[in-house]
């Protein structure tokens, strides 16, 4: 009964290590897990697996709704909240035969880069072998619980959410693979929104194949999510990719965006970046320096847009219909409603971003912040479109057929995948993170990951290097997850 | 690798709030003391919270009214600009009573109407009026975490019908936005509406004298501009049990989410209405257009239509608009009229005493007959409009609009044109304006169809009988008399409503055509209605068993035509009876006198002879020739 043994091993691991790692918030009952494992085992033995992830043990970030265990967003507000319905991504895991083991810890509502802002306490990065006594380090955020659980082998893979880097950064810090799919690939129905126009459901696993299999299981059109990509669009993207690969038989062309070469990059990161590019060049991939001049505005743009949408999305948390309601809900002193509840149960970082977003949307600031940020976002997307050989099929519907020879020539010189580091540094010590004086110190961690979020394109953090792994970020045109997997495969064992 | 490198410190430009210094915003609808400003004289409801939750919220519930007024918004800055721009072109009629010489008032309306559609705007939950509370609520309607809005395309149809009826330009692409404010009746903390890109723009409605408007010499209509028509979500219904002591105990508010996200349209007129009367007439017209176009079903009395009014005054002749105030949540046409009048008086009195009108949001106190301040500029809500990221743009194909245009139900102005002779020359039915209006007003226009059916049937009978063109044409007027006067009178005396009317169009057409063809007398025709009504009521037999022609023959009610000699004898009898008149006629040969004799003879003949036949013969007899036909 290999699947059952696998579940038992995970549960034992959780019992031993979760107290320290704090990766899980709630687990599904052991009996249920063992029963599902036995069923999966049966299917696999009789050679009728439901999918490639049948019997795999998957953890789910705690902002993705499950209907049998609480969905808390690691917030005091939702500590006891049980959703009456289940997220489509989780349902797709179920129908693929995967075993959902439990819910993982995170930064409250996905707002944070180190998984320290949680009502369940901070997540710790699983220490590499031999470093058990070293100071605690950051698992990254906001999907830190998912990354830590996967890295510590408490599960086979995990779902996270990535709004500005929340899957990629923890994957890089924990030395595993983390994929942020193209916006709209995986249904967001049942994913508690932080910033709707940026949120994606991502995948974390210890190997490339694990990510690919889970992604294939959860990706697909869902009528419940109004921003889900239709089957026609998916087909058109597939055709365009086939055309591009058909025209360009040579190995995928790799771009290096010069603007990502920041002074703050630490030396192990820089060294691994060089090493990665050298290796790919040896494998025959042309390496092309490219420029994305607006990159420097991406971080500010991201924090304005994400905070604005967050301030709006989090308005529904008033304690009236669900979640915790403060006994002081109605304050006879000030005669105010809601405010006592919202003040008591939102953490500092959430409150900070709500205020930032509320300000950005106010009549006084709207034009200067939100409207400008939207404009910059379009320019950033345009810059990515300009460097990729593949067209952005979301925005170039008409041009698709009208490619003339000259355009083809030009496209041939463009790139398929961009490679950048995922983070500025290796996982920092939690002590140092907590000592940071300004929230901006944390926000800059997202500088390398937010551009892909703003553009809606797929991005994947891949662990590279001997000894402690360094996260390298692969970026591709909208819908071209295939290219990411191909390069990730080439980088395996580097 | 190339350098120099950008430094992160220099590329971050964020207004990061410092929680230590920033006071957490007070997220609240309004202080309770303000919210219940007008409730002091209202009796406390005796219903227990549980029982009252089953009661529909009535419009005269002042708690609800003022609470709503509190939450609703002031006009937005950009509209204020528009008001300034379009102010100069209005032609102004009435002033304010008592100040007619020096001041004039300008109003604009903003109405919210519930669309006539089966689904909510963003979930597949059904719309409902008086169902068990919280029984029609989708996951998104309750704003449950993780739920998303799914736009229901069928809700577009009534909204588009409204836009067509209001002569608007329908935008090929419109979008939804979020309007933020905290209130218990709005689960998401924001309302999804259309702020930046509305569904339709730049329409108009016309007010005619037939709508009751008084126009200047030579002016035939007044055009009221429609700035825009937008779709949006309705809020929940609140049933309030007030607190006995608001300072220590909160009131109980029971919330029914059935109404949440019921599709609404908001219609905004330009500020061009120069009196309270104009405001109420425009509102009435809007209401009738929305109803006739099948866009909205329920009237104001059901809370299905809510109205805010902008009021400003200015010195007569001024071309710029004065500072306006917005009066929120007016629940009936009468209240709109009263509130505008009162607010205009207030503003004039402020100005005449040397004061300045302050832009603010006001409520209406029906008991005092006054508007009162809800909030001023400083209390203004910043709605933080933001594009709704989850709902894709709405694209309306030209084909859909064309199809809706073709399928549009007839609008009141067109119907009136068809029915009444005054409105359009050569109107098909030739009713008087008063009768046409009466016909249309009753039973939501249900009698119009009945009327038209009877006319068509009568005309067919007359054509078959070879009647003259003029008689056929006049049938409309005659049928009108029966449908508007004779039939209702009979129904009323039998205590029947229109829906219980047992007289079918065939019955009535048979009666009227018999009468017009001279086959039965007027007296007989009038006796047939009570016969039908009493027979169907007493025997509860189905109406179809009554056959008028058979009944007439079987009861020998048919008029036998007079023979020629009988007719001459009848004329002679009349001559003998009115000797004086005859002498006068002989001496003067006046045509008028001749016609007098015709009338007398027809009357004496009790319907057995018609006027034209008498005319042909009477001259000969009077002039002594005594010839027959």
UniProtKB/TrEMBL annotation, chain A:
GO BP, sorted A to Z: glutaminyl-tRNAGln biosynthesis via transamidation; mitochondrial translation
Reactions catalysed, as given in the entry: L-glutamyl-tRNA(Gln) + L-glutamine + ATP + H2O = L-glutaminyl-tRNA(Gln) + L-glutamate + ADP + phosphate + H(+)
What EC number(s) does this enzyme carry? 6.3.5.7
Q: Where is the Amidase domain?
A: 7-484
Q: Where in the cell is it found?
A: Mitochondrion
Task: Determine if Iron is one of this entry's keywords.
Answer: no
Q: Which PROSITE patterns does the record associate with it?
A: AMIDASES
Instruction: Give the residue spans that cross the bilayer.
Output: none
GO MF term set: ATP binding; glutaminyl-tRNA synthase (glutamine-hydrolyzing) activity; transferase activity
Spell out the catalytic residues: 61 (charge relay system), 142 (charge relay system), 166 (acyl-ester intermediate)
Source superkingdom: Eukaryota
- Identify the GO cellular component terms for this protein: glutamyl-tRNA(Gln) amidotransferase complex; mitochondrion
What does this protein's UniProt record list under function? Allows the formation of correctly charged Gln-tRNA(Gln) through the transamidation of misacylated Glu-tRNA(Gln) in the mitochondria. The reaction takes place in the presence of glutamine and ATP through an activated gamma-phospho-Glu-tRNA(Gln).
Name of protein: Glutamyl-tRNA(Gln) amidotransferase subunit A, mitochondrial
Question: What is the native source organism of this protein?
Answer: Terfezia boudieri ATCC MYA-4762
From TrEMBL, chain B:
Q: Which major enzyme category is it?
A: ligase
Check the record and name the InterPro entries matching this protein.
Answer: Asn/Gln-tRNA_amidoTrfase_suB/E, Asn/Gln-tRNA_Trfase_suB/E_cat, Asn/Gln_amidotransferase, Asn/Gln_tRNA_amidoTrase-B-like, GatB, Gln-tRNA_amidoTrfase_suB_CS, Gln_synth/guanido_kin_cat_dom
Source taxon at top rank: Eukaryota
Q: Which residues lie within the region annotated Disordered?
A: 34-91
Keywords, A to Z? ATP-binding, Ligase, Mitochondrion, Nucleotide-binding, Protein biosynthesis
Bias class Low complexity marks the residues at: 37-67
Signal peptide region: none
One annotated GO molecular function: glutaminyl-tRNA synthase (glutamine-hydrolyzing) activity
Q: Which HAMAP family does the entry link to?
A: GatB
Show the SMART domains listed in the entry. Answer: GatB_Yqey
Q: What is its EC number?
A: 6.3.5.-
Q: What is the lineage of its organism?
A: Eukaryota, Fungi, Dikarya, Ascomycota, Pezizomycotina
What protein is this chain from? Answer: Glutamyl-tRNA(Gln) amidotransferase subunit B, mitochondrial
